[in-house]
């Protein structure tokens, strides 16, 4: 049973590498339920869910991303898990990771994936890896509506000002104004100004400024 399920999963991957469901006359399996996860004391991840009951169930497709709202495609297919397994131990986690799980039957029909599961090390908001350079990443998603995430990296602990400006150069809002530790950080902007009023569609700029680093990037808000 386990070997047969593994074979089905491999056939599905080679025949359908884009990660999309194979069309067919049979209905796909049900979406897995009770999909959850915990970060163990050694910072490894343990994912669990309730096993599907379909008689022709082949197994599960586990998708993983480092950003929220990641696409369900071959690039984010992390592991194929043969039935009847309903747990999966992932590796060590040092920053936030995002997971979704889908069931697949012997005919190659994939269920709708679960809602996104977010896990991060307890009490740690930024990556513990040692950064090699300052960085202001492109916001994601971009274009966006209604929210977007801005990530940046600091080489040392220092005061950070991260603000949003409109196309006229007028400050819209300040997202961060204070001390931050060295490492990777992220902040979310919900397309509102300092008063909490929604901004209009258009091009905006986000600027980071520290004692040692300054950079500006552009983003597009679409309603």
N-to-C SSE string, H for helix and E for strand: HEEEEEEEEEEEEEE
Number of strands: 14
The 3D shape can be described as elongated
User: Describe the biggest sheet?
Assistant: 4 strands, antiparallel
Under CATH at level 1, the class of the largest domain stands as Mainly Beta
Kindly estimate the percentage of residues that lie in beta strands according to DSSP: 35-45%
The largest beta-sheet arranges its strands as: 4-3-6-7
Rg calc:
21 Å
How far the N terminus sits from the C terminus, by CA atoms, comes to 50 Å
- Domains, number: 2
Distinct helical segment count: 1
| Known CATH architecture of the largest domain | Sandwich
Helical residues, percent: under 10%
Overall structural class, as computed from helix and strand content, comes to: mainly beta
Mean of pLDDT: 85
* CATH topology tier name of the largest domain: Immunoglobulin-like
CATH superfamily of the largest domain: Immunoglobulins
Question: Low-confidence parts lasting 5 or more residues at pLDDT below 50?
Answer: 1-8, 17-22, 124-128
Task: Give a structural overview.
This protein folds into two domains: 2-119, Sandwich (Immunoglobulin-like), CATH 2.60.40.10; 135-221, Immunoglobulin-like. A four-stranded antiparallel beta sheet has the order 4-3-6-7, with helices on one face. The protein has 223 residues and is mainly β. Mean pLDDT is 85; it is low at 1-8, 17-22 and 124-128. The protein has one helix spanning 2-15; strands at 33-39, 44-50, 57-65, 77-82, 87-92, 97-105, 117-119, 135-136, 148-154, 158-166, 171-180, 183-189, 202-209, 214-221.
């Amino acid at each position: 049973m386990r070997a047969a399920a593994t074979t089905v999963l491999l056939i599905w991957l080679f025949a359908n590498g884009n990660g999309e469901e194979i069309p067919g006359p049979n209905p796909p399996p049900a979406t897995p339920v009770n999909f959850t996860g915990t970060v163990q004391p050694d910072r490894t991840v343990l994912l669990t869910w309730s096993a599907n009951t379909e008689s022709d169930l082949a197994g599960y497709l586990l998708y993983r991303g480092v950003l929220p709202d990641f696409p369900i495609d071959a690039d984010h297919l992390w592991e194929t898990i043969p039935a009847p397994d309903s747990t999966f131990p992932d590796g060590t986690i040092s920053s936030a990771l995002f997971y979704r799980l889908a069931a697949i039957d012997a005919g190659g029909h994939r269920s709708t994936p679960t809602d996104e599961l977010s896990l991060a090390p307890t009490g740690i908001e930024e990556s513990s890896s040692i950064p090699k350079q300052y960085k202001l990443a492109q916001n994601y998603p971009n274009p966006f509506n209604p929210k977007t995430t801005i990530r940046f990296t600091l080489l040392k602990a220092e005061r950070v000002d991260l603000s949003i400006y409109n196309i006229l150069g007028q400050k819209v809002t300040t997202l961060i104004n204070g001390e931050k530790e060295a490492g990777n950080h992220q902040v979310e902007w919900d397309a509102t100004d300092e008063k909490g009023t929604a901004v209009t569609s258009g091009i905006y700029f986000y600027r980071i400024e520290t004692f040692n680093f300054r950079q500006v990037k552009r983003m597009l808000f679409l309603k």
